Amino acid sequence: MLIDHLKKTDDRAITKWHHYFQVYEREMGRFLKKPISFLEIGIFKGGSIPMWKDYFPDGSRLTFIDIDPACKAFEIEGTNVRIGNQADPEFLTSLAEELGPFDVVLDDGSHVCAHQIASFESLWQHLTNGGLYMVEDCHTSYWPGFGGGYRNEASFIEYSKRLIDTMHSWYTDQDALFPFQDMARELNSVRFYDSIVAIEKLEQKEPPTSLVSKNGNVEASRRALQVRGRTSVFAGKDGS
Ligand SMILES: C[S@@+](CC[C@H](N)C(=O)[O-])C[C@H]1O[C@@H](n2cnc3c(N)ncnc32)[C@H](O)[C@@H]1O
Predict the structure, then answer these.
(1) Containing structural domain, residue 46
(2) Is residue 111 annotated as part of the catalytic site, yes or no?
(3) What CATH number has the domain bearing residue 114?
(4) In angstroms, what is the span from residue 109 Cα to ligand 1's centroid?
């Protein structure tokens, strides 16, 4: 188990909340069958570098970035450390051109909401189809000092909640207020854990279809997506 790595550390300290390990296993477990491309934002004392190297299959491309030039010293064989600012789109674009695309991105950097959003917006396009983007320590979304605060629109948690709307924009019933957003074509799921948001990319070029099956005959339809101003067929029968 990934958490067992904590008993094998050397003087390169690693800082992770206890409950993250079960989230890592649950979210990243499916990336262990073949070599992947992984990016972690935030190195600090370098402790997570050997952990991820042990965890992911041999041959994986493992990239780590930090704003602190001293972190270059933590590069080990089979890993790439690059120095730059996670809020700098130019840095992230050149990083992705050199070492992307990425199957998994884990943002454990500054935890400043504006930086988390800037990184996500730069790197989403460099995530592979089927890829996973995780942001941790999202409790900073509740701390004004990190650009958060309860229900602050600028927080990463509020930003992620809006991604839920984006994902459902196929189904809009209010075209002017809530138009279809193209990102719905690749936003497969947004999962919230305590302090971690996991966003999954899966291209879906065509709109969702509903299936009706009767006597073994299956019919697919997208009619429901075109209807506007609908009401429940149960209206009046259920007390509403
Ligand atoms: C929480 S630590 C990373 C811990 C490490 N991932 C681990 O598991 O042990 C956060 C790191 O993010 C770096 N950092 C802070 N602001 C940054 C920024 N704007 N861009 C890139 N890295 C940043 C800090 O220098 C620090 O080393």
Answers:
(1) 2-208
(2) yes
(3) 3.40.50.150
(4) 4
